Amino acid sequence: MSRSDGGWWRLVIYLPAGTYRFRYCADGQWFIDHAAFGVRHGPYGPDSILEVPGDAVRSVPSAEPLPPAGAISRLRN
User: Fold this and answer.
1) CA atoms in the 13 A half-sphere facing the CB of 25
2) DSSP state of 70
3) Reduced to 3 states, what is the DSSP secondary structure of residue 56?
4) What is the Cα–Cα distance from 33 to 48, expressed in whole angstroms?
5) Cβ(19)–Cβ(76) below 8 Å
6) How far is Cα 62 from Cα 12, in angstroms, rounded to an integer?
7) pLDDT reading at 76 higher than 90
8) Cβ atoms within 10 A of the Cβ of 72, count?
9) What's the pLDDT tens digit per position in 52-65?
């Protein structure tokens, strides 16, 4: 993640099409994003939902793996 103007944090990652759950961890506290595609309850509490449509998939150059700083898990239908 990198900090941008106005105090916003930004992370760019490329994910295959699908539905993902995520949360933010800041100062040891977990937060959900109410501006995401919704919120669903998971085994450890509420998770934010991210929808990546099939037409958003594109090829990108390989990059260094990101350090573990949070959790994104793919939902299974």
Assistant:
1) 6
2) S
3) helix
4) 6
5) no
6) 13
7) no
8) 13
9) 888 755 544 444 44
Q: How far is residue 22's CA from residue 63's CA, in Å, rounded to a whole number?
A: 21
Question: Is 28 in contact with 21 (CB distance < 8 Å)?
Answer: no
pLDDT of residue 61: 47
**Cα 9–11–14 angle (5° rounding)?**
160
Q: Which residue did the predictor score with more confidence, 15 or 69?
A: 15
Surface-to-core class of residue 44, CB atoms within 10 Å of its CB (0-12 exposed, 13-18 middle, 19+ buried): exposed
pLDDT of residue 56: 56
Predicted TM-score (pTM) of the model is: 0.59
Q: What is the pLDDT of residues 20-54, one digit of tens each?
A: 999 988 889 999 988 888 899 988 899 999 988 88
Is residue 46 within a helix (H) or strand (E), and if so which, with residue range?
strand 45-52
Q: Quickly count: other Cβ atoms within 10 Å of residue 54's Cβ.
A: 8
Sorted by where each begins, the domain ranges of the chain are: 15-55+70-77
